[in-house]
Structures are given as structure tokens and as C-alpha cells.
């Protein structure tokens, strides 16, 4: 008799053992021949092997978007088809609900039943380890997950205060959380004395005037959305009113002093004339007595007060 066979249409030659590879799997046709005839039989050979996880089926970096289903599928090869689980490093939960399983094998696919998954939050960011397991062993691969989200938590601060004194300066700062980092735009009261920072995160006003009062609105944007916040700035002019009042008070005071002075001068001015000195000395109206000489002898000037 003469034996022989084919594999995928190619003749098989040689006998003896050799190292099996995945390429050896498939359908074999065995043929036995002698002078009395031929016997043919086909055999399917399955080659089993341990799992492996590659970059193509399981990239080491992933981007998740906040609010979308939290799914971390990682494809692995192996026969029998491996079961793949992924868990965040340091997380004691097993299995993690945020990372449903996924498998892909060369000889037939197998998919675990889908798990109920929550939506992505910022807390899901981190490093996960995916493990593929079958009867012949396990393979591991780490995956780093970053979570992106639209701008949130827009805050505005006016330094030193939102109540600004006319002529002084102030700065309005804007900040927001977001991945990627947000960019900033402003809606501002129309005024010439405004200056935006290089990164647009703040606006500075010098020598504030009434044109600088009003609503300052900052909008933070990235590819996932936009969010705005506002603050009201007031320019206080009360110090002008105080100065005007003080000026008016000063004018009134000066006028009052002038009137009082005139009245004093009028009522205390010396009245000139000739008086009997003895009578003047005894008078309650005598305020002062001045003596001087002239060609007619001694002359006395007497200052009297009003009765």
C-alpha cells in the first residue's frame, strides 16, 4: 500500500514529529492506495494556543467623553477564544461595571453578554489592565484612559472689587474646567481703556470711567461645548459728590465768616469824637481808651460797644 495526503490542496511529505504552528490548522485529506483500490478520509485539525493582545485590537491609549457609555473593549486572539476582562489598577471591584468585556479570536468569535454600564465621568480616568484568558494561559495589557469634557465651573473674579472708584483700575479674571483646555472670549462694555491678556483669560481696566460699568461676560469653549459666566461692575462716583458738597460747604463757611467779620467790625469799630473822659471811664460802654497829644492838648479816643 501507499499512503499520502494533502493539506489545503498541497501534498504532505515526510513523516515524524515537528513543532506545530497555527498554520498547521485546517482540513487534511488522507489517501491510502494499493493494487486493490483507494481509500480517502478527510480530517480537520484544530491548533489551540494561548491568548495574545496586540496594539491593533487594544490600543494603549483611549479617549472617553463624559456622559457617553463607559465601554472599554479589548480584542484578543487565542484558541479557544479567550475571555477578556478589564479593571482599573488598584480597583478592588471585580468585574468593573465601567469596562465590559470583548473578545475576538482567529478561529471563531466569542462575545460575553454585555454588562450594564454607567455613563463616563471624570472619575473614570486612569490606567486599566486588560486580561485575556483561555485554557492555555493569559495575556495582559495596560490601557490608559483620558476623559474629555466640555467647559464647566466658569468663575469670574473682579480684583480688587466689583465696586470700583472712578479713576482707579481693576481686573476681571475668568476660569473654567475642561479637557481639552478651554479658550476664552468676552462680551464687554464699549470703552477704550480695556486690555485683554495674551491668553484671553483676563481683562484689565485702567482709570475707570462710567463707560466701564456694566456686565462683563466670559465664554469658555472647547470642542465639546461652551459655557458662559457674567459679573456686574459698578463704577462709584460718590467721592465727586462729597467733594462738591465739601466745596459748597466751604463756600458757605467762607461767606458766613465774611458776614460775621463785617458784623464784628461794624459793631466793634471805634467811634471817634470828644467825650468827657471821666464819664467815659465810668461808662459800661467804654471798651478802650486811647490818649494822644495834638496842638490843642490831650485828646482821648474811646471805643464803645453797643448797648
TrEMBL record:
Stretches that traverse the bilayer: 239-265
Record-annotated Ig-like domain positions: 51-146, 151-234
Leader sequence residues: none
UniProt entry keywords in alphabetical sequence: Membrane, Transmembrane, Transmembrane helix
Keyword Membrane: yes
Single biological process term from Gene Ontology: cell adhesion
GO terms, molecular function: integrin binding
Keyword Manganese (UniProt): no
Superkingdom of origin organism: Eukaryota
Coiled coil: none
Recorded GO CC terms: plasma membrane
Chain spans, region Disordered: 1-20, 89-120
Record-given protein name: ICAM5 protein
Species: Callaeas wilsoni
Amino acid at each position: 500500500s501507499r499512503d499520502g495526503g494533502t493539506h489545503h490542496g498541497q501534498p504532505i511529505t515526510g513523516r515524524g514529529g515537528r513543532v506545530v504552528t497555527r498554520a498547521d490548522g485546517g482540513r487534511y485529506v488522507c489517501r491510502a492506495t494499493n493494487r486493490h483500490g483507494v481509500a480517502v478520509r478527510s480530517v480537520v485539525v484544530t491548533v489551540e494556543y494561548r491568548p495574545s493582545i496586540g496594539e491593533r485590537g487594544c490600543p494603549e491609549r483611549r479617549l472617553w467623553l463624559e456622559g457617553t457609555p463607559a465601554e472599554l473593549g479589548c480584542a484578543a486572539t487565542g484558541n479557544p477564544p479567550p475571555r477578556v476582562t478589564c479593571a482599573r489598577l488598584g480597583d478592588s471591584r471585580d468585574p468593573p461595571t465601567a469596562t465590559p468585556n470583548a473578545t475576538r479570536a482567529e478561529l471563531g468569535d466569542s462575545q460575553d453578554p454585555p454588562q450594564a454600564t454607567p455613563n463616563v465621568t471624570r472619575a473614570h480616568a486612569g490606567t486599566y489592565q486588560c486580561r485575556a484568558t483561555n485554557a492555555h494561559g493569559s495575556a495582559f495589557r495596560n490601557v490608559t484612559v483620558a476623559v474629555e469634557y466640555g467647559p464647566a465651573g466658569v468663575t469670574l473674579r473682579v480684583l480688587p472689587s466689583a465696586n470700583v472708584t472712578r479713576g482707579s483700575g481693576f481686573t476681571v479674571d475668568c476660569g473654567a474646567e475642561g479637557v481639552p483646555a478651554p479658550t476664552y472670549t468676552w462680551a464687554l462694555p464699549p470703552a477704550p481703556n480695556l486690555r485683554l491678556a495674551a491668553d484671553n483669560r483676563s481683562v484689565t481696566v485702567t482709570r475707570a470711567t462710567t463707560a466701564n460699568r456694566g456686565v462683563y461676560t466670559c465664554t469658555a469653549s472647547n470642542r465639546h461645548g461652551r459655557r458662559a459666566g457674567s459679573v456686574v461692575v459698578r463704577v462709584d462716583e460718590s467721592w465727586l459728590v462729597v467733594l462738591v458738597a465739601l466745596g459748597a460747604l466751604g463756600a458757605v463757611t467762607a461767606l458766613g465768616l465774611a458776614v460775621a467779620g463785617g458784623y464784628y467790625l461794624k459793631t466793634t469799630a471805634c467811634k471817634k469824637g470828644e467825650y468827657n473822659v471821666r464819664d467815659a471811664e465810668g461808662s459800661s460802654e467804654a471798651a478802650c481808651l486811647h490818649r494822644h497829644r495834638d496842638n490843642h492838648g490831650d485828646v482821648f479816643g474811646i471805643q464803645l460797644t453797643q448797648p
